[in-house]
Design a protein that fits this description.
With 331 residues, this protein is of the alpha/beta class. The chain folds into two domains: 21-234 and 305-324, Rossmann fold (3-Layer(aba) Sandwich), CATH 3.40.50.300; 238-289, no CATH class. The chain is 45% helix and 8% strand. The strands form two sheets. Strands 2-3-1-4-5 form a five-stranded parallel β-sheet, sandwiched between helices. Strands 6-7 form a two-stranded antiparallel ribbon. Helix 12 runs antiparallel to helix 14 (272-287). The longest helix is centred in the last third of the chain and has 16 residues, at 272-287.
């Protein structure tokens, strides 16, 4: 970290029942695996609900997706997530939106100025490809071509070309996700440097166990107990057919008159358990498929576009990510 990011001074008092530490992102960079590996440590409590999103007040959903948890509207509702933690446990949560959010860092610091912050950063081009696949799967995105999806950023900033089923269109602004220095500065302005741990995805992938022990040490818990290595959220499958996916949405969670008519017809010929299995099988075999190899031309374009960010991040963290991520070998 550069000398310009100095420890803030604060007289704020931590509020009881609010987490001691936060995994703030990025998505598709090992945050789910780290969450899973930490939450089984006896000195750590993390709730079943990953991604509470409570402090990302600038990223409120446009609507409540079917079968999703209700949003947490009050601090008391948020605290209730951690009610089962034992007094001696460190409490944590993981919301990958908090790094992208412009409000989360300051809001966390307001209620928990002594919080520990953990961020994981990934090489921009591979990160955006993986994120795009994830957003397709979760119906935030509907453009199967990543180049086309990125080209729509300008329109989407104005509320145009946003998919009908996209409940969090802020996630579609791909270039915002890789403004790494800007994101980290928000946390370094809100917390002393010793309370912010920045991890690199490559290190985590190469040495899961060593990285988890580093995080445990950072959190002040026993670091030598066994580490159960997990790959909780690998790169998503591509979507083969949006048309079939839309039909499955009508059958499973749709609420309009067409959906009600289709579901009424299916109830006559197929019990609910069989209906659920049929939908799952169709999703697995007809909707989802193995990801295509990355478009190397596009990957090169993205690396050229975001090289300045990688150079700035290397200087900010005092680590040569330009060489690590191959940005010194671009044509």
């Amino acid at each position: 970290m550069t000398a310009s990011a100095e420890a803030p001074t604060t007289a704020r008092v931590p509020q009881a029942g609010v987490p001691d530490f936060f995994i703030v992102g990025q998505p598709k960079s090992g945050t789910t695996a780290l969450y899973e590996m930490l939450r089984h440590h006896p000195q750590i409590y993390m709730p079943e609900l990953k991604e509470p999103w409570y402090f990302a007040s600038d990223m409120v959903a446009r609507f409540q997706p079917p079968r999703s948890a209700a949003p947490l509207k009050t601090l008391d509702e948020y605290r209730s997530l951690f009610a089962d933690a034992r007094p001696e446990q460190r409490i944590g949560e993981a919301s990958s939106s908090y790094l992208l959010s412009r409000t989360a860092a300051a809001r966390i610091a307001e209620v928990r100025p002594d919080a520990r912050i953990i961020a994981i950063l990934r090489e921009p081009a591979s990160f955006l490809r993986s994120l795009h696949l994830q957003l397709l799967r979760t119906h935030v995105e509907n453009q199967q071509d990543l180049r086309r999806a990125i080209s729509l950023e300008g329109a989407r900033r104005e509320g145009k070309k946003v998919p009908r089923r996209s409940h969090r269109p802020q996630l579609l602004l791909y270039s915002d996700h890789v403004r790494y220095v800007e994101q980290l500065r928000r946390y370094h302005e809100a917390f002393p440097p010793e309370q912010v741990l920045v991890l690199i995805y490559d290190d985590f992938r190469r040495d899961n166990e060593g990285t988890v022990r580093t995080v445990r040490r950072f959190l002040g818990v026993e670091e030598d107990s066994p580490v159960e290595v997990k790959d909780a959220n690998p790169t998503n499958a591509r979507m083969r057919s949006q048309q079939i996916d839309e039909l499955l949405n009508v059958v499973s969670v749709g609420r309009g008159p067409v959906s009600r008519a289709v579901k009424a017809g299916l109830k006559v010929v197929m019990p609910s358990e069989l209906r659920g299995r049929a939908i799952a099988l169709t999703q697995r075999h007809l909707v989802n498929g193995t990801p295509r190899p990355p478009d190397e031309e596009l990957m090169l374009e993205l690396r050229r576009r975001f090289k300045g960010e990688v150079v700035a991040l290397s200087e900010y963290l005092d680590r040569d990510l330009v060489a690590l991520w191959g940005y010194d070998r671009l044509d």
